[in-house]
Specification:
seven-stranded mixed sheet, globular
Length: 239
């Protein structure tokens, strides 16, 4: 599995202003992208709650109705990356490229413990606001150590509903997909990611010292990698 795919038919549009639609990870919001400085306009989404009984494909199709007209690039972090892969598969003629950050590129990359949750759903114990009181203790697991970062991520988690989080975990556990073969993509992953450890992750452009929220913590380097990939795609379109 290549971590950067820019085939001859990448064909990034000549106007150079194709928007990047960005979806954050499970339980967080658009503020996760606040440190990025990208060459393309970015439209960062927040998560809508799923409908009762809604599965990932139906949710993704409903979410795709929010896309602007014309071609787009899609960017997703963690569970957001899984959803954006699904969207690219649904709309191959509209999606010009995928930017996947701190996420899975194939269902076989799931950590072993996550696979066990299919049979022993312990994540369902994490309901209610009480969990926020313990976030400073679990924050290092995500690489979140600075007090300002702890407050930011905690405020994001506080906005996420139990319904959204429980549904999202269930969808990740059940997901059996992979990166669409026909879609150009850039894949970025942190060497210190503990949620999706590098030992299980396929070929990626590695961010040294990057944790699961590196898109915020190392926004300058992540931005540099994304902008370089876009420039390369645009050069190919000009040839």
């Amino acid at each position: 599995m290549e971590h950067i795919k820019t085939p001859e038919n990448t064909n990034f549009p000549e106007d150079r202003q194709v928007p990047i639609i960005a979806l954050p990870g499970l339980g967080v919001d658009h503020r996760l992208f606040g440190q990025l400085e990208l060459s393309q306009p970015v439209l960062a989404w927040d998560w809508p709650d799923p409908l009762p009984g809604e599965q990932l494909e139906a949710f993704t199709l409903r979410l795709s109705n929010r896309l602007p007209e014309g071609p787009v690039m899609l960017m997703g972090v963690s569970f957001g990356g899984i959803v954006m892969q699904q969207m690219a598969r649904l709309l191959p003629d509209k999606v010009r490229g995928l930017i996947l950050i701190s996420t899975l590129g194939h269902w076989r990359e799931k950590p072993s413990g996550m696979k066990l949750l299919k049979f022993l759903p312990l994540y369902q114990l994490g309901r209610g606001k009480w969990r926020l009181r313990f976030f400073p203790q679990v924050a290092p697991f995500f690489g979140v150590k600075h007090p300002d970062e702890i407050r930011l991520i905690k405020s994001m988690f506080a906005r996420a509903t139990d319904r959204h989080r429980m549904w999202g975990m269930q969808q990740i556990i059940q997901w059996r997909g992979e990166i669409p073969a026909e879609t150009p993509y850039l894949r970025l992953h942190g060497t210190e990611d503990r949620f999706f450890p590098k030992e299980k992750i396929g070929a990626s452009a590695w961010i040294e010292g990057g944790y699961h929220f590196m898109v915020y913590q190392q926004g300058a380097e992540v931005s540099h990698r994304i902008n370089a990939w876009i420039r390369e795609g645009q050069k190919r379109a000009d040839q």
